[in-house]
Amino acid sequence: MKLRWTMELYATGANQSLQLHFGKQAEIYQGDADDLWEFTCVFRHRDIHTIRSFDSHTIVYQKRNNRFIAKAGRAPRGHNALRFVDENIYRTFAEANNGHVAVYNSETATITEYATIRDLLRDLGFHYKPKHVLWEDELVKEERPKDCRPSRKEQFACDYEHYHAYHEVIPRPTLVLKVSYTGFPDIVQLLAHSTGFAALSSTGEVYTWGDERFVGCLGREVSDECPAQDPSPVPLLSQLPTGPVRHLSISPTSSLLACLTAGNDLYIWGDPRQLPPSLRTLFRADDDWHDYNDGPVPVVITDTDGNEVDCIVDVAVGTEHIIALTDQGEVYVIGQNCYGQLGLGEEIKWVTKWEKVPLSLDDGGGGTKKEIKAVAAGPWASFLIVGKEKKRM
Amino acid sequence: MSQAMTTTSRSKFIGLCLSAVQQIIQECTYIADDEPTFSSSSPSPHQNAGSPKPPSNVQNLGSIRLCGLEGCQEPLVELLCRQASRILQLYESGSGDAGPSNNANLQSGEEHEKAISLVKRRLELLTKTAYGKFYAYMYKEVPTCWRQLYTDAAILRFAVLVLLEFDFEADAGSKEDADEKERRMKRKMIVDEMVKTLDLSLILAGAAGQSRGRKWVDEAFALLEDVLGDMTAVTPAASGGAKTGDDDEQEGERPQKKRRISSSSSTKDEAIKGINDSWQNAPSFSTVEPFTPPVKNPISRISAESLSLEAFQSHFAKPRPDGNPGPAPLIITGLVDHWPALTTHPWNKPDYLSSRTLSGRRLVPVEIGRSYVDEGWGQKIISFGEFLSKYIDASIPYTPSSSNVSPFHSSSSSAQPQPSSSDLLPEKDNTQIAYLAQHPLFLQLPRLRQDILIPDLCYTAPPSHPTDPSQDQPELDSPQLNAWFGPPGTITPLHTDPYHNLLVQVVGRKYVRLYGPEQTVRMRPRGKEGGVEMGNTSQVDVGVVEGWDKLEGEDEERVNSGDEGGRENSEMGWEEDFKKVPFVDCILEPGDTLYIPIGWWHYVRGLSVSFSVSFWWN
């Protein structure tokens, strides 16, 4: 008997730009489509391998040749342009919430960071022209006032409640347009968190860099030798009991970073100040997350009976939630459910303890057996990549 | 008469919201891509080179800036636009006759409710997305478009509340049955939500936007006040007397001041005159001072009458007694005696401040904790009423309505309370000090701004920084105003500002100590802390050095100020050295104005309930 795998994509969460709808979009568009509150099959294909879910669109790649197979929702102009210019770069580029963009070139062993996606396009020789000339004028007109010291209030603006006195703010494009870091020959993952990036090498070394104000996201000390803005290794992640890091999961809109070790242990680090209370407890069980240490901490998932769940084979991070897959094929979630991203139904607003998602993927009878291959997350959505074992007569 | 007025302010209110909704649709449609909405493929937007002309009606809008949102990603602009269209559609279908007949599917109340909650959820998503950008970027680099997106989403949310949810007729029936009570409660909740929505856009996003923005928000607040005032005004007296329950609607302000005849300033004075007398009998803030530090080297005082503009200008050039460069600090008395804030609109009366903040409903950002360099210090957004009663004077009554203010709008339909970012502060005890500090309160509450005047002295040309030219800032267009309002014991640690400062004491007393700019090295400036430059703040806690304050907790874990850190311990004797640094000090009385020249290190300590206004200029 020959086995053939068919794959399905299940999704739940925010659907404000129809990014969970892979069908003919114009037809169902009436006002706004509602969010999905439970995992729902949204797409089927022979081969589904990678999901890239952005603010308002989702892209599906297959394993074979990493080929693009489907897109749902609306992509911003910069994304459309980059996809057109270089599909390969688009598949792997990382874009942080502060607009910074990073790409990796394995031939030159170089990570290059750009201030914006426009700078990346420009570097690729593509003049990304904004649609409306007025905007361009405005950009040109922006002045660069001399370096002024932030007021005391501003210095704390990144702490605690983030309110700002904006009336005094002048736009100040001080960013370097492009910075390159060489000497990274074997990067296998390059991902963005809200204020910076993290990269994983094939040997399990994790490098982090980004905004020093959110040092928790770096998971390491900041010093003259290892400044915040340069990719530097996270020492605590190179000597974990269950082996080197094999997988990173980070959301460009979140301040929580997660990784899995070779032995399938889950570690997280980040800046709890930027997280909803439902996720802060991950950093400190006793709720006193104010004393969080700036290093990765192990995360233990317990089932309803209080037993420890071993072997987390995949994990994905959204803006305010995490989804994890165990080797038993069970899906656990934690965090906010305001748009259905946990797939627990509309009544649940959030969960502060890991909750197993009740799933019924098998479509009754027929002898088909389904297996969750991987999980993925968008900012406000979760995905399951499901393999279907079909007996061929 | 009042009926007519009610209709006018109400229709103005509704008109304001409708016009904002329409404006947003117009602007967003222009920005939105011409790629057909939701086409699922073809990643080649750049190929259609021809950019669309602005819609013809846009030309008529003249000065309207079309591009405020253009830095935001197009799908988000479209999303905003769709919500605006949806609100219009729901408003039209809800108001019956005006709606097109094809909205039959929306007629059922449940569908209508569901549609409204979806719009709100979408607007919340926009708000969250924009809010995420606020801290992802460096403070000065947050692109304006994100602040406008936040503001426009807030404006739309406000429009949802006004156009689709607020029951303008709630007071028409004078029956005091359970139904009526529930309606009142609901209306009160909606009003609180309206205030929260707009105040957060002012506080968090600076109400950015050319065609709406702060101007729109200010107008909306003014009209909201009118509408609320009118609604209580038309309540029959009989029913007013029957109102005794404490959960009852505390709708407007007290009767004598609830009616703002018009928002135009010409008639305002009349309205104000009528209420002057009432303030005299209203209770004032307590003047109790738990601790009064001694003044050792008093700053010289001069009466405003004997200080002409020219005399003040020449003071800048006058050498300091100790021969160091730059002008000396100076206390000017009687400079602000004529301010309404000290006379007809007394800021020392809680009732008056309450009346200027929609009965204490308006939200303000406050700092929680003794001093901003302390461990556990944080910032919080609370209602002015809560601030007054919880932190300033416990005798001021306040019934918390929406105690948990989150930067996000919690969905009103949710049964569970939303966890919010205001949980960020550990509520260790309720004896914490809260300080409304360095907040541009007068931009947020223009009506309080009318109670003060910019002193003429700010129109002088002061010298630049005496020792460090890098401190000098680009010239300000107009003086920068900040409010400093707090209970006894607030502390602003020793620091310098890059501007000249007139610190006007309006209510209560404050102790101020000043060290000259030439002493900067001995002030033990901080370095970079947590990625932010703290060089303008000293490591020294003056209160601790002087023995006025004890460090919280004796154990090493609860170190309160940087001067106790391990590094500093190795440099014994700095404290003795610091004590030898010459300084001047003073206690500011109500009506006093302290001139703090640029670069002077100052330590400020509230002695009683204290309200000051600072004017920065250069």
Automatic annotation (TrEMBL), chain A:
InterPro entries: Ran_GTPase-activating (IPR051553), RCC1/BLIP-II (IPR009091), Reg_chr_condens (IPR000408). RCC repeats lie at residues 204-261, 264-328, 329-388. PROSITE patterns: RCC1_3. Pfam families: RCC1_2. It comes from the Eukaryota. Coiled coil: none annotated. This is Regulator of chromosome condensation 1/beta-lactamase-inhibitor protein II. It comes from Neurospora intermedia.
Automatic annotation (TrEMBL), chain B:
It comes from the Eukaryota. Residues 37-56, 277-289 have a biased composition (Polar residues). Residues 35-56, 235-297, 403-426, 552-572 are annotated as: Disordered. It holds the Pfam family Cupin_8. Residues 428-618 form the JmjC domain. InterPro entries: Cupin_8 (IPR041667), JmjC_dom (IPR003347). Residues 403-422 have a biased composition (Low complexity). Signal peptide: none annotated. Residues 558-572 have a biased composition (Basic and acidic residues). This is Clavaminate synthase-like protein. It comes from Neurospora intermedia. The lineage of its organism: Eukaryota, Fungi, Dikarya, Ascomycota, Pezizomycotina.
